[in-house]
Every structure is written in C-alpha cells, then in structure tokens.
C-alpha cells in the first residue's frame, strides 16, 4: 500500500480481496473504490464502488455482461479503454482485457500505474485474513 497524490494504491499479489464485494464495499464509504483482478487461468473481475454503492462489476474478458447499479454509465469509456465487445472486431490478434482494465481504472481514478511507479515507490506491506 502507498499514497500516490491524494489516492491510495493497493497491490495484492496472488489475491482477490480487492474485488470481493463484501470487503470492498465497506471500504468505499466516503470515497471511490476501483479494483481489478486477473489470475494465471484468465479469470478476471473489475469492481467500481462509490460510497458503499456497487456501481459496476464485470469480467474484463467478457465486457458485454455488466451488472450493478450503473452498468452502462461507463460504456463509452470502456470502448475508449480498449475492451472488445462481441459485436466488434479487434485490431489485435488477442483481446487486451487486462490492459483495458488498467485504462478504465485510470479513467475512474485519474491515477496511472506505470512500471516506474511500481519500481520506484516504497510500499507498506501487510496481510489480511480471508474469511
């Protein structure tokens, strides 16, 4: 965990608590919570919550299937971020869902994750119990 400007950045290697609604919603009280997850098997999830309200949840690899209170509010931003929808063709040989998830998170938070940020920033480490 670290502070970047007026935002908090959490990185959870090999974990999924950040996209677990039960954990993230209470943490979003009074603020905006944006998280995404992908594992080695390609399972992925994106969560946007604001002041304990579930605004948007979807799998970045399947962006056509979105749910929660405002599933279409970010549709233009999702297209601009590079998500590939079923009715569209792609300029790349493979979908870039993870890259698109980072771009959408940047759109929502105004914070950009770069290799330099990850390399040059000091993080406070800890652990959380999963129940």
What percentage of the residues does DSSP assign to strands (E)? 25-35%
Radius of gyration: 15 Å
Choose one word for the global shape.
Answer: globular
Unreliable residue runs = none
Give the integer mean of the pLDDT values.
Answer: 90
Give the beta-strand count.
6
Give the % helix.
Answer: 25-40%
Q: Structural class of the secondary elements?
A: alpha+beta
Distance between the termini: 21 Å
Side by side, the strands of the main sheet go 3-4-5-6
> Please, how many helices?
4
Describe the main β-sheet briefly: 4 strands, antiparallel
The count of domains is 1
Order of helices and strands: EEHEEEEHHH
What would your notes on this structure say?
- This protein is of the alpha+beta class.
- It has one domain (2-120).
- Helices cover 25% and strands 25% of the residues.
- It contains 4 helices and 6 strands; from the N terminus they run E-E-H-E-E-E-E-H-H-H.
- It has helices at residues 21-27, 75-81, 97-109, 115-120, and strands at 2-4, 7-9, 32-38, 44-50, 53-59, 62-67.
- The strands form 2 sheets. The chain has a 4-stranded antiparallel sheet, with helices on both faces.
- The chain is globular, with a radius of gyration of 15 Å.
- The relative contact order is 0.17.
- The model has no long low-confidence stretch (mean pLDDT 90).
């Amino acid at each position: 965990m670290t502070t970047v400007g007026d935002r908090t950045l959490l990185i959870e290697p090999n974990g999924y608590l950040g996209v677990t609604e039960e954990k993230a919603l209470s943490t979003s009280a009074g603020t905006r919570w944006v998280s995404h997850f992908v594992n080695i098997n390609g399972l992925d999830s994106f969560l946007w919550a604001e002041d304990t309200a579930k605004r948007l949840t979807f799998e970045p690899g399947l962006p056509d299937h979105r749910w929660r209170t405002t599933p279409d509010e970010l549709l233009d931003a999702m297209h601009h971020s590079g998500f590939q929808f079923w009715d569209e063709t792609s300029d790349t040989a493979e979908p870039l869902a993870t890259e698109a998830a980072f771009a959408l998170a940047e759109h929502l938070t105004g914070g950009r994750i770069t290799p330099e940020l990850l390399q040059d920033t000091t993080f406070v480490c800890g652990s959380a119990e999963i129940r």
